[in-house]
Amino acid sequence: MTPPRKLAPRRSAILATCLADDEIQVGPHRRVSFQRTLRIPDDDGLYPLPPGLGRFPLRAHEGRTILPMYRREALWISFEGAWWRPSAVKIGVGGINAVSGEPLDGEIRPGRQDYLVCPDQPWLDGVKAGEGMIRQFVGVPLGDGVTVEGQLTGHEATGGIQIVVIEPKAGLFPDTPPERDVRLGSEAVCFSTHADMGLGVGGRMRQDIFPDDYGWETWDPARRGRADVRLVHVADWAALTGEAPPPNPVSAQAYTDAGLPWFDLYSERGDLGASERLATVRSVDLLEGETGDPVSIPPWQVAFVEGDA
To answer: What is the DSSP secondary structure assignment for residue 13, as one 8-state letter?
Structure first.
């Protein structure tokens, strides 16, 4: 295991954040990584969850975390960490909350839930744009007006991905693991400013955002940390890091033709209501005048994963 790489501190962050092994750890209990994945077709279909094809590399560059993406490449976000101590997690795409479509902040309010509860929610594959459905995260350059940020605000000044982790109030959950250890963070915080790529949306897939069974009053916004990830085009990756970029991802059709599995996260917990703002966001293909060819996935290729485990 490589040692955590310390990054430049950001005074307004409260929880320590560090980068190691292609993961970002925010606070002592929550880790976030980004999975390379298949770009699903942008058609009228509602697809199961595509697989993870390995983590995106993450590196520290000039005090910021950078991640390489091809144009129109897809990703999904994985949440790991202490199973015995939950966190409220907000994800921003260009400063826009991926659950509510409103500007990202670090507050918890009564009423509509605009955050994930982790580890209950193991993954997020896109923005919450419909009932039981998300639209896939797809990397696009800033300046073309096709990002979620650009469509909802008219500007593309932020880009990238933002992560806000909010701890529960003191005394509600144990401070130490009851059975096994988890990896702890170091005294470092990662923060970046502007990015040269952002996230638009692609095809539709089945994914619920689980309701908060603990209640909004569980969380303490005064105990939060933030990490921002700058998305850079693969053409710039070697110049910034001295490393070769990852290979171009395989197509969804080629993956399916090889008989490899897709996934469906099964749970009876229900789903948050759809975001009206995010439902208005148009896909990259639609905005750029392209269409995707449907992929036929046999039922036997869909593996069901229990979401309550």
So the answer is: -
Among 73, 68, 72, 75, CA closest to 237: 68
Using alpha carbons only, how large is the chain's radius of gyration in Å?
A: 18
Least trusted range by pLDDT, from 30-39, 100-109, 187-196, 295-304? 187-196
Residue with tokens 């962050």: 13
Instruction: Locate 102 and state its tokens.
Output: 């409103």
Q: What is the pLDDT at residue 175?
A: 85
Exposure of 201 in the CB half-sphere (CA atoms within 13 A) = 28
Average pLDDT over residues 126-130: 93
Torsion angle defined by CA atoms of residues 284, 287, 293 and 299, in that order, rounded to the nearest 10 degrees: 50
**Distance (Å, whole) CA 176 – CA 182:** 9
Residue 270's beta-bridge partner residues? none
Query: If residue 150 lies in a helix (H) or strand (E), which one and from where to where?
Result: helix 148-153
Tokens of 76: 């999904």
Q: Which two tokens stand for residue 109?
A: 């309010």
Angstrom distances, CA of residue 203 to CA of 42, 78, 180, 252, 301 = 4, 19, 39, 12, 19
Token pair recorded at residue 5: 């790489």
* pTM exceeds 0.70, yes or no: yes
Comparing 78-87, 135-144, 180-189, 264-273, the range with the smallest average pLDDT is: 180-189
The dihedrals phi and psi of 301, each to the nearest 5 degrees, come to -90, -5
- Residue pair 165/30 in contact (Cβ under 8 Å)? The answer is yes
Q: What is the DSSP letter of 51?
A: P
Given the structure tokens 């890091």, which residue do they identify?
241
Residues 6+ apart with CB under 8 A from 68: 56, 57, 231, 232, 233, 234, 236, 237, 245, 246
